[in-house]
Amino acid sequence: MQLGIEVLLKNKKDIQYLKSKKVALVAHPASLDHGLSHSLDLLQKAVKLSAVFGPQHGAKGEKQDNMIETDDEFHAAFGFPIFSLYGKVRRPTKEMMQTFDVLLYDLQDLGCRIYTFITTLLYLMEECAKYKKELWILDRPNPVGRPIEGLLLDKGFESFVGAAPMPMRYGLTAGELALWYKDHFKLDLNLKIIKMKNYSMDKGLGFGWPQGELSWTNPSPNAQTLFMARAYPGTVMIEGTTLSEGRGTTRALEILGAPDIDFKKILRRMEELAPGWLKGTILRECYFEPTFHKHQKKLCHGIQIHTDCASYNHEKFKPYRIVALVLKVIREFQPDYEIFRDFPYEYETSRLAFDVINGGESLRQWIEDQNQKPQDLENLLKRDETLWKKEIKKYYLYK
């Protein structure tokens, strides 16, 4: 298969056009071709860049945690500015917009609504529409493929980790999502998608990721494997709880746990309540001790979500449901346990972090209500997932 950046560089007509324009790039460490050459270097040789924009975690990908900002700088060798879209601003300023005619977006995403690169994409689309700039998406794989899971974001709950009414696992590439954004937000935008070639959204072993063809490079510090990406639409919710999501370990966002919860008991009860939600993966009882972050240097009992095994089933695996059920059972066994963290999350201070992450209160209310059963949540999920699937099918670029 060929990535969007590789397709672009082989298109003499497009490259000739870009040579006549001021061209900027949105990139991070995973903006690479198959040979692991960075898009910045490849494009600088081909068309000469006027500026680079970096998303959350920095253009170099060095910022470890959320709400750690990056400063603007200049490229030491080429002399053009590197603007931070996770520093003093989240949207490019008027001055930043004047540095280019065409903006090339080449970020590797995780296929999860809360991953902020797709919010940055929307903000860039809106600003390019406002200032009449061209935006080209150099498309990349969605590592978690076509499956859809999660509740739709509720109106009024928009944030930097949820900019539009979409589910947690949304089943589109960045190029496909940009097409939906353009229609949904009625943007008058000169948008061009540089499609990948020979890419499949559902072919094994990668099921969205061209495993065996393309190396995995962390798009953010804790996105360390394809298997983390698969679990992330569920485990990211743990960021809004007092449980550890495994930050400070070598398997962040593939494991979850706490020092004061019996997860052997939790797993047994999960099997009793909703065995259908646990298919397609192996959930293994584990222990870990975070070296930093929540429960630092404390022994945690927990669960590891394994998607690197022969029994992994891409269509049946439901990480959002798995983590929702973990929290439901904790509440059942320990009614007074302090599950939900009360702290600013992506600069949102008026709502619980868990609600900001989920784009609404419905999931937390289901967890807290002892009368609500798994089937009650299943009904809500099926409704929203069906609506989303119907809405996005016309934007599929990869059949």
Description:
The chain has 399 residues and is α/β, with parallel strands linked by helices. It has helices at residues 4-10, 12-19, 39-46, 94-97, 117-130, 174-184, 226-235, 263-273, 319-333, 353-358, 362-368, 374-392; strands at 23-26, 49-54, 73-74, 81-84, 102-105, 134-138, 190-194, 255-258, 282-288, 300-306. It has a 7-stranded mixed beta sheet, sandwiched between helices. Helix 8 packs across helix 9 (319-333) and helix 9 packs parallel to helix 11. The radius of gyration is 21 Å and the shape is globular. The model has no long low-confidence stretch (mean pLDDT 94).
Average pLDDT level:
94
- What percentage of amino acids are in beta strands? 5-15%
- Count of helical stretches: 12
The end-to-end span amounts to 14 Å
Low-confidence parts lasting 5 or more residues at pLDDT below 50?
none
Strand order of the largest sheet: 3-4-2-1-5-6-7
- Helical content stands at 25-40%
Largest β-sheet summary: 7 strands, mixed
Integer-rounded radius of gyration = 21 Å
Number of strands: 10
The dominant shape is globular
Counting helices, strands and paired strands, the structural category is alpha/beta
User: H/E series, N to C?
Assistant: HHEHEEEHEHEHEHEHEEHHHH
How are the SSEs ordered, and which strands pair?
Elements: H1 4-10, H2 12-19, E1 23-26, H3 39-46, E2 49-54, E3 73-74, E4 81-84, H4 94-97, E5 102-105, H5 117-130, E6 134-138, H6 174-184, E7 190-194, H7 226-235, E8 255-258, H8 263-273, E9 282-288, E10 300-306, H9 319-333, H10 353-358, H11 362-368, H12 374-392
Parallel strand pairs: 1-2, 1-5, 2-4, 5-6, 6-7
Antiparallel strand pairs: 3-4, 8-10, 9-10
Helix pairs in contact: 5-6, 7-9, 8-9, 9-11
